[in-house]
Amino acid sequence: MRKLNLFLVAGMIVTFLAHAILGALQLSGADTNTLKPLAWVCVGLITAHIVVSAVLTIQTLVACRKSGAGYFRNNLLFWVKRITGFTIVIPLVMHLMIFHSAGEDAFRLQVFTAGRMISQILLVVTIALHVLINIKPLLTGFGVKEHRMFAGDIIFVLSIILLLLAAAFAVYYLRWTAF
Questions:
Q1: Which helix (DSSP H) or strand (DSSP E) does residue 4 occupy?
Q2: Cα 38 from Cα 12, distance rounded (Å)
Q3: How far does the chain reach from its first CA to its final CA, in angstroms?
Q4: What distance in Å separates the CA atoms of residue 130 and residue 80, rounded to the nearest whole number?
Q5: Is residue 1 helix, strand or coil?
Q6: CA–CA gap between residue 102 and residue 111 (Å, rounded)
Q7: How far is CA 137 from the centre of its chain?
Q8: Which are the contacts of 98, defined by CB distance < 8 A and separation ≥ 6?
Q9: Do residues 28 and 168 touch, judged by C-beta distance below 8 A?
């Protein structure tokens, strides 16, 4: 089940990055037609990841209960990973509600208030935090022994992309407030 989760995460990262880049371009005014199918693939992978992670968490809690020793302080990183993953859900649902369009042919602009912009910046921040905390276990899962060599590059690239996303949300918000 952990291997399945590993491949789900790899798929999520690839589809998320493609969705993020195309979405940032679309929010900035470019026309991208492949965004919607890619977004639904990403939602499917996220849903599967949530289910697998929940099952693994429940199995861990059952094992802790059977052993009689939870070692909460020693497992603090375990809980931080779960909590940061859970905190993504709320801004993600808001993201789906804000950018889901009923039209099949064209992307429809919706009123983008300050509250919506804050929720989307929060989505970017929670994703960044969750990825940063989980990058080492992901690399370990793929058999990478030199974490530091790859982790710095991965964090740098993700930081640039997430900064691009935050800027795209700001541009989108400024376009709405200008009218």
A1: helix 2-27
A2: 11
A3: 50
A4: 9
A5: coil
A6: 15
A7: 16
A8: 110, 112, 116, 119, 120
A9: yes
pLDDT at 67: 82
Q: Tell me, rounded to whole angstroms, the distance of Cα 96 from its chain centroid.
A: 13
SS3 33: coil
> In whole angstroms, how far apart are CA 165 and each of 11, 18, 19, 130, 168?
19, 12, 10, 16, 5
Amino acid at 133: I
| Rounded Cα–Cα distance for residues 124 and 118 (Å) | 10
Q: Which two tokens stand for residue 75?
A: 């497992």
Q: In this predicted model, what pLDDT tens digit does every residue of 63-84 receive, in sequence order?
A: 888 887 767 677 788 889 999 9
- Interacting residues of 46 by C-beta distance below 8 A, sequence separation 6+: 12, 92
pLDDT at 98: 81
Assigned token pair, 53: 């992670």
Identity of residue 58 = I
- CA dist 161 and 125 (Å) reads 12
Taking the C-alpha atoms of residue 8 and residue 113, their distance in angstroms, rounded to an integer, is 33
